[in-house]
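Quick one: Xylulose kinase from Prauserella cavernicola, structure tokens please.
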Amino acid sequence: MTGNRDVLVAGVDSSTQSTKVMVCDARTGVVVRSGRAEHPDTTEVDPAEWWSAFTTATEGLLEGVSAIGVAGQQHGMVTLDDADEVVRPALLWNDTRSGKAAADLTDELGGGQAWADAVGSVPVASFTVTKLRWMAEHEPELADRVARVLLPHDWLTWRLVGGDPVTDRGDASGTGYFSPAKNEYRTDILAKAFGGRTPELPTVLGPAQPAGHMSDGLLVSPGTGDNMAAALALEVGEGDVVVSLGTSGTVFGVCETSPADATGTVAGFADATGRFLPLACTLNAARVLTATAAMLDVDLAELDRLALAAAPGAEGLTLLPYLDGERTPNLPEAAGSLLGLRRANMTPENLARAAVEGMLCGLAAGLEAVREHGITVRRVLLIGGAAQSASVRAVAPSVFGVPVVVPEPAEHVALGAARQAAWTLAGTQDPPRWQGADQALRLDEPSASDAAEGERIRERHRAARGAVHDL
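--- reply ---
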């Protein structure tokens, strides 16, 4: 790319809810144009919907682009037959029907430690391996037709370049049948999960290894999972922990060694650069706020005002926001719980505050977990739609107990995919330096009294979680 100031790259974020496309300057990361198209709001979907959204989002957008990368929602199960036709609608990460399958598989391999040692993670309902078990048990005739299993980003990349499907180490590490530490598939686990069947799996490419070219010559990078792409966009370094508040909530940082958490709280994923990405995930994040706003019949701005008008701790009102089941802790069949109700604290202000604190406490538990597995926590990078909430920004430093910064609002997953495309195009050892998280809003560091109040809030939530576990 030497001497050419007009090289453009594109990044695609095929998420649960939509496809976002960012076209960027390959050297600086500056966004020059963008596109978007919505996905159906469901937990299973025909992959053709992703292709339709991609086509809509990129219409007129890719002229002059030299390379493109695709990042996708992790864990989803795309099944193809021997004619490369989709066997059944793809099951997405947030489809929890395979909760029992996850528990059964954990027992069959010998418990959490055996899984953590084998693939870095203990399976929960989100993982592809559990969805394959569910399919084998509930749809055996369809399972018999499956010749290939892909992840969402694999399927889109395959549609772009054709040939044999490929993936990357980061996204493969979320399947439950790939070892990021050994960089190899565990086909024995695949067969155990899928009733003895061993469908073909995508070839795992190295960081920035080309996946191929589109018919018009556009270079395609290997792509990756959404969390891996976000880490790449933010140039996450030692001491940085990302807390992402989107449909799901995620907590992750980058390290050099693979964790093996037998409890399953921390997933031992790989990142998109050859390192590891210990991650804790909750199913319930931004939608906790939208659901609470709907319950109170207010908009999000009013929810912020109400939450900020309440005292820290919401006068003892505690919300466990397991509105769609939960992944961390692993309670796929759980429902939300509102505890500590008294006549004096049953106000809209306290409910709004409890929603904000409940959402953040779920992520604070994840922060504690990744700290225990090799991640240094010096600051939190707060991203995602809910990071723009005034009440979330006000409460986060005390609940997390560390400095919090909010990067400029951006489509970090799509930008990470674009940065990977630029890296693949350049053919260099390291990705290009783009604007990272230093251009950010720095929130006030928690004072001693704030930190103490945050610990009291977290402790009340720990007690509430323990009560729910015991039910």
